[in-house]
Amino acid sequence: MGENEGAEKREEHEQKEKHENDKDVKEEKGEEKANEKKKKDKEGKKDKEDGEKGKKNKNPGDKKDPAKLRAKLQKLDAKMEALSKKREDILKLLQEVEINDTQESGEAA
Question: Which of 3, 23, 26, 104 shows a CA-CA span of 20 to 30 A to 17?
Answer without folding.
Answer: 3
